[in-house]
Amino acid sequence: MSESAEKFGRITPVPAYQMVAEAIEREILSGRLRPGDPIGTEAELVRQFGVNRSTVREGIRLLEQGGMVHRDSSRRLAVGLPHYDRLATRASRALMLHQVSFRELWEATMALSLASIELAVERATPEEIAGLDANIAATEEAMDDPAAVAALDSEFHLLLEKTGRNRVLELAREPSNMLIYPTTNVAVRATEHGAQRLIEAHRMLVESLRRRDIEMARLWTRRHLTDWRKGFEKAGMDLDQPVDLVTGMA
Amino acid sequence: MSESAEKFGRITPVPAYQMVAEAIEREILSGRLRPGDPIGTEAELVRQFGVNRSTVREGIRLLEQGGMVHRDSSRRLAVGLPHYDRLATRASRALMLHQVSFRELWEATMALSLASIELAVERATPEEIAGLDANIAATEEAMDDPAAVAALDSEFHLLLEKTGRNRVLELAREPSNMLIYPTTNVAVRATEHGAQRLIEAHRMLVESLRRRDIEMARLWTRRHLTDWRKGFEKAGMDLDQPVDLVTGMA
DNA sequence: TAGGTCGGATTGTCCGACAATCATGGTCGC
DNA sequence: GCGACCATGATTGTCGGACAATCCGACCTA
To answer: Which residue segments constitute the domains of chain B, with CATH numbers given?
Structure first.
């Protein structure tokens, strides 16, 4: 759009190891290689591509980190099915590097949580509600331990997410989750009766699933996240600071 | 949670090339290496890590694909700041491999678009509105060319997204965008006056930004996406089919 | 100052090698 | 016959060295 007509495009020689990676990736994306299928041995790939083993290995490493290929127990290569965690990890690290603020994180989490809870209200099964109840019970047990509460809170929202049965949304939410929940610990600790309020919110959320009451679910989602935000501010932290300062991913 | 206390954890020897990658990644995430900084030459890394150059190179390749490091014009290595595109590409490929359905995609897009448009309504500047207007004008010009319309539609929503000024949401939306917009082409073609309706929706969306009318924005976002869905169905496609059948990412 | 030349540095690729580990098949004991 | 055990080959991870292509920077020249 913005580029005017230039005579020649940039010339970019593609290294052989990249071509190896792309060739394998194409096979996977096209469906000719399916998750779980073994990729050949290195020697075999050397033969097929006609390049040196070092080159093949570099190409494989390119794909390895993304989860497209993975080494099974015997270190043999197989096609992998990249899981959200892995992608979310990379995404949340990228967000850190971009120095996104907690405000952005909070806004996005609010929006995504509201979307997620609506689907959950529509689709929750008794089993899923029982799972959520169990989580609440465990949280009550652990009320004195903010770290445990934060972990259980994270699990609660994960369960809630699964209840929505929408993997796209799940994937979209996970980077935010990874960045936000480490601070739940702090937020809960900072608020008077923080754990108490958290548990109540969870209870009301489950109750709204039971009643299939979307408005109630939205209300308590908002309250729950507002509480988190208040705790965050009460702990003396600034919503406009970049996220990497707090989440110590050492 | 589920694991009981076992005496010994699984012993997993970590290959040297992974340790190289992790060491570099740690430096980046800790902030000691910042985006743009040069990573040493391979020879230097060989010296520092005390491993062979092949090993160093394999380690570097691990990071390269994720965008953590990238080769600048002179092929020298530098710390990169992974952009959304790259992550989104990986994410959308993963969604394809997981065979998510168009229904999931549509639901997520609906939720994310509504969230996004609300922020845009709050924050739109005259310049941004002008940019959106320009896009609409271009779309009108190209009305006879469904492919061009689809591309401009994609650009329109990208602009809208930027207007929201929330990078977390931006990142969350992009995988869905990448998967959904290739089919806009088909959807527009299938509907009577498809391009016309698309342009009208865009116009009303911009108008609601101008008026800062959130309800209006939400309404037209819903209509716009419902139109897309109708076109999709009218083209004889099934919402519950996995996304990879249509998007020919050859 | 613009352009050309040259040498050193760096990357991409290749070759060959070896220890450690894994898979496999055969052997042995019961 | 069946399971435990072992030898052998295959495979990976790592190493050392090598060379062409390219890039950078300094130097030179018109």
So the answer is: 16-79 (1.10.10.10), 85-245 (1.20.120.530)
